[in-house]
Amino acid sequence: MEKQKDPIVPDMKPSAEDIELRKRQMAARRQAAQRAAISNAAAAQAQPAKQTLATVALIVALVMGGLAAFLFMQLQSVQKQLNQAQGVIADQGKNLQRLNDQLSATGENANLSVDALKILVKENNSEIRKLWDVSNKRNKANINANIKAIKSLKSSVASVKKAQGAAEKSQTAALASAKRDMSATVDKKVAALSGRVKQVESAASDIATAQLGVSQNSDALQALEAKVASIKTGGDLGDMKLEIEDIQIRLDRIQNALGGAQ
Questions:
Q1: Which residue in 224, 258, 253 sits closest to 239, CA to CA?
Q2: What is the DSSP string of 30-73?
Q3: How confident is the model at residue 144 (pLDDT cuts 50, 70, 90)?
Q4: Is position 147 within any domain?
Q5: pLDDT band of 207, cuts 50, 70, 90
Q6: Neighbour count for residue 36 (Cβ, 10 Å)
Q7: Into how many domains does the chain fold?
Q8: 127 and 211: one domain?
Q9: Range of the domain at 65
Q10: I need a surface site. Which of 100, 109, 117, 233 has the fewest CB within 10 A?
Q11: Residue-wise burial string across 213-224, b where 16 or more C-beta atoms lie within 10 A, e elsewhere
């Protein structure tokens, strides 16, 4: 439906005929004034006594002419406005008629559109039912397949959880056994190292003893050398033999001690 048009305001400018008419009126008034002035002048010359009356008559005539011209102009303006209003009313009537025609056509089209829409709705409902039946059957099959797959997945998850639990238990047991074995091995190695340390400490003690014996034997050898020197100069040979045997026994002990330390 078209929007109602705003009324057309007619142009208020005077037409060429009005302008021409006004010019004629002004010319007529000027001619009348001139004739009146001429007649007044003649009357003044001919009849000086009537000058005042003629002047008053002229003034009255001028006033009446001006009033008549003013009233005529107002009448023309009112007539023009009336004509313009009639034109606007005629335009509005045409617009109303056009609007009525459009409304009538729109009503008929609306009735046709409603009928067509009803037919389309029926057809669409039929197609929707068909599609719904097909999709419902397909969805049921898919839903059943999904349910079976979910059950299978649940059983697989349960078996995986069981296997994981068993693996965790086995791993825990293996770790505990490895810890025990490692602890036993460490204990054995610590015990062996402790024995070695004791042996080293004992060997060190034997070495110290051997060193002490060597030092003592060195002293004995020095004494023996002194005795040998004295024998050479005439000492006792029997005492010399006893001292040599004693030194030999000490050397054997030192050698045995050193062999045990190694």
A1: 224
A2: HHHHHHHHHHHHHHHHH-GGGHHHHHHHHHHHHHHHHHHHHHHH
A3: confident
A4: no
A5: low
A6: 19
A7: 2
A8: no
A9: 16-133
A10: 233
A11: bbeebeebeeeb
- Give 192-215 as a 3 state SS string: HHHHHHHHHHHHHHHHHHHHHHHH
Q: Of 107, 133, 159, at which residue does a domain stop?
A: 133
Residue 149 lies in a domain: no
Between CA 169 and CA 174 the distance in angstroms is 9
- Within 10 A of 33 (CB to CB), how many other CB atoms are there? 14
Given the structure tokens 């335009």, which residue do they identify? 91
Decide if 176 is inside a domain: no
Residues 6+ apart with CB under 8 A from 8: 87, 88, 91
Same-domain pairing of 107 and 210: no
244-258 tens-digit pLDDT: 667 667 666 766 665
Cα(142)–Cα(105) distance, integer angstroms: 53
- Token look-up 């102009």 returns 73
pLDDT score at 60: 74
